[in-house]
Structures are given as structure tokens and as C-alpha cells.
Amino acid sequence: MTAEAAADSLAQMLADEAAKTRKLEIIFGPWWRHYAVPYEFPATLYVERSKCPYCGGPLGMHPLFSLDALAEDQSAHLDHMDPLSRGGEDCIRNTAYVCRGCNLAKGRRLFVDWLEKLNPPYRENARRLYKDKHGHAPEEFQPGAKQPRLTLPRYELSFDESVLLKLFPKPIVSGPPIRE
Fold first, then answer.
1. Mean pLDDT, the chain, as a whole number?
2. In a domain, 151, yes or no
């Protein structure tokens, strides 16, 4: 894929994802980030930053833009800052693209434990990223039961916005999901 074709593809993906965001806002109101499945927003998450927030290294190409079999070893990885296995949400507010090495090294660690492993300048960057996305410090996360990975797309996103406004005259939630 040429650089121009990749840029066009990325621009189209971002436009499509912006439309999904508007639809999620209709359905979930201000809490939409808790309900936005990260796999539906790869371009949005990828363009958030140009380097790995954990080490400052290059993210590498997004896997969607490369058909190269070796790309997996060099591509950006989606990290759940609060691991699903420890009760973290499978949503865009809990995910960030990081380099392969950092994602594999972090594994299922709690974010507060992972911060201790990072070099000081990146520790502060990672802490800020977490607070910006979650709205609270990583120390406030309370581990819980394992959460499922949400891989199916939301069928509601296939409707036009005008239809969603009729179906959902007000948001269907009044807060974030309740974990068990």
C-alpha cells in the first residue's frame, strides 16, 4: 500500500469512526466512551499519539495498513490499561496503542504496578494518559471479575443517526457500566 493510499484509507476510517461516535453519543450520552468497543475505533486510537506512551519508541505500522506477514512483529498493539482479566472495561477509554515490546512486558499487570517498571519520564506520561482517559488516577482502579472481550459490532451503529434519534430520544444509561 502506498503512503498516499494509506493516508486516504486512514482519513476514511477516521470519518467513519466519527460517525460511530455521534451514534454512540445518541445512545449512551456522555458515557459513550464506556460503551465504545475499541475494535470499532482502530484509527481513532492509533492517531492519538505517534509514539509508545510507555517507552517513547515507535508504534510501528497499524496492522490494518499492512499485508506484510512480518508486520505483526513490528506493529502497534492494543493495550487494555486495566487488564480485562483483572476487571478492566473493554472500551476505548481503557485502551491505547503501544509498542509490541511494552504490551508483552506489561501483560496482565495492574497499571499501578506497570508504572513502577517504567522509566520516570514515561511513567509520568503513562500516568497522564491513564488519567486523561479514565478521569481518575490508576490507584483508584479496583480489580474485579474478569471482563469479556467484546468482539461483535454493535448492530445499532448500522442505523442512520435520524433513526437512532427516534429510537433513543434520550440516552439509555445514566452512568458507566456496573461491574460485578
1. 89
2. no
Q: Is the dihedral of CA 25, 31, 37, 43 positive or negative?
A: positive
Report CA-CA distances (Å) from 75 to 12, 64, 142. 21, 10, 31
Does a structural domain hold residue 152? no
Residue 30 lies in a domain: yes
Rounded distance, CA 94 to CA 45, Å? 11
- Extract the residue ranges of the chain whose pLDDT is less than 70: 1, 61-74, 179-180
DSSP labels, the chain = --HHHHHHHHHHHHHHHHHHHHHHHHHHGGGGGGT--GGG-HHHHHTT-SB-TTT--B----GGG---TTHHHHS-EEEESS-GGGT--SSGGGEEEE-HHHHHHHTT--HHHHHHHS-HHHHHHHHHHHHHHHSS-GGG----S------SPPGGGGS-HHHHHHH-SS-S-SSSPPP-
**pTM summary value:** 0.88
Gyration radius of the chain over CA positions: 17
Residues 126-173: tens digit of each pLDDT: 999 999 999 999 999 999 999 998 888 888 999 999 999 999 999 999
Chain position carrying cell 498493539: 77
Residues of the domain holding 110: 3-141
